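Running log. JK asked me to keep both predictions on one page so they can be read side by side. First protein, sequence followed by its tokens:
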Amino acid sequence: MRRLLQYGLRFLGLVVGLVLWRGPAAARPPAPTLPPDWETDPPGLLISVGADNGAKGPTVQHAPDGMEVLIAFVQEGNTDFDRDPTYSRSADGGLTWSAPAPIYQSPGVDSIQVTAAYDTAAGLAHAAWVENMALLYASETNWPNAAVPISSPNPPGVSDPVLIASAAGYLNLVWAEDEGSNPDIRFARSLDGGATWPILETVAATTASSLTPDVAVDDQGLIHVVWQESVPPHMTNILYSQGAAAGLNVAWSAPVAITGDLSEVRQPRILAVGNELHVTYTTFAEGAQQWIHHVVCATQCSDPTNWQDVGNPISGQAMGANASDPYEVTSSLAYANDCLYVYFHGTEPNSAYPDNEVISGVNSCDGWSANGRDRVTEPQTRAIFPSIAILADRLLLTYEWVNGGDHQIYLMRADLPPDYLYLPVIVRNP
């Protein structure tokens, strides 16, 4: 009922123009797609229950089969240097959740930037995070007692890890690593569900600063990595490299820029849908105005001319960021029912709360921002770092909710629209 009341006017023109139709249902034109229908008002369901000192940096992942979902985040400790990676799990598609529990405990040592994934073979959860300056990994079979160091560089160390699962038992991990010069993008792979990590490589050793990588694996097993690359003196670009694995080696293609002539672009995210690649990223203009852009590649993606700009910017009107961390608008993307969904945070122009980000979304089946954004949260409190996943026909959104100095992790669920919506059809009997 809520959806019909809110969007009924959108279909009024189609209703007025309805004519008698006789023919197969498959020949009927689809009606416009509706945005997700959120089950509750914001902030939604508190996930970081009992995090009296706060929680930050959520990511949501679902198991390959069934209704199991996991949210990983960093729980603040009693001091600024006592954070631990933490998780909460749902067995019913995000309706109810377990009490938060530690992925790993290291009293007096700081843990940040946790990332998680599900192994497609065993359905086990895996996590990686930055511990002090090193990169650690642990399978859920060892939570919270044991962790494996993947990389332990000299200062300033590791940042921005992303962990994903691909073929049965394969785990893929990218991060930025800096030993006192310019950060490079590194890659590690396990072929046995995290028991060993025999592949440890540098994707691109460039003379400029490489940060915020993301990784995807397509249906052919090719590895795709994107990252933010500085372009001296004061610009950035999004670079892409493709990895072809053969045994314990990965052959990486030469990095190419996929963002054309844009001069200030950051925070890339990549998703493989079959063998098609989708990348979103943030663009900047004067006055700290920011937008989300989208490019797609279907074949031979090592050739930058095969990356197509898809009616950008997809986010619509300009956004901004809070004067304190985060300084940049970030996005998260997922795919279902032939639609690409992209959610992001950002401040809104002329808002009564100019320093408070809201979380909004757009999708390809609804004309991106042409029909307006799906604004999920309200600007009375800050909402940042969205992470989305799609389980069956339900969209799961987790994010960091900021009320004054208190940071907590919340979840909201929405029903996705069906593949096609049809108007009534009148057929005269012969």
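And the second, directly underneath as requested:
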Amino acid sequence: RESLSSQHRQSLIARRIQSLHCVAQTRIDFAPQTFQQMAGLVAMYDTRTWYYLHISHDESRGRVLRLSMMADGGYGEALADIPLGDAPVHLRAVLDHQLLAFFYSIDQEKWTQVGGNLDATRLADEYGSGWHFTGSFFALACQDLSGQRRPADFDYFDYRELDSQKEAPATR
């Protein structure tokens, strides 16, 4: 379907964020053939404001993991661009009050942070211009802007609130 900025035909499944201390996680198997194909895990407010950790294709490096963002309608190209092999990848987003961090893992034991700590306050009603009332979401998304309708396989989508006294967000 269309990009995360489209107000028409998106292909995503979203879950409202209900805590300022939570984690969302998935496992994705996706084999893009062009840079126009991408799929992954999104932290979003609306079509104008989001962070997107996704698998895509680079002409010289093949399959890559990218972190991109949209801030009140201003697109930010890759905040991270990591070459990947062909194996399925686990993706994780951790929200810790005003900070958001993304991670990936091949084996679900060793997690690597992607893009550093991000400003989660952008996912709030008060950020940006225009009307805001939707609230924040974690979502699984898949786009194929080439029109080939390339599918992505997600094994699961897990959302859970963390106990801020017991669980360190950087390791969960």
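Observation for JK regarding the second prediction: The first strand starts at residue 12 and ends at 16.
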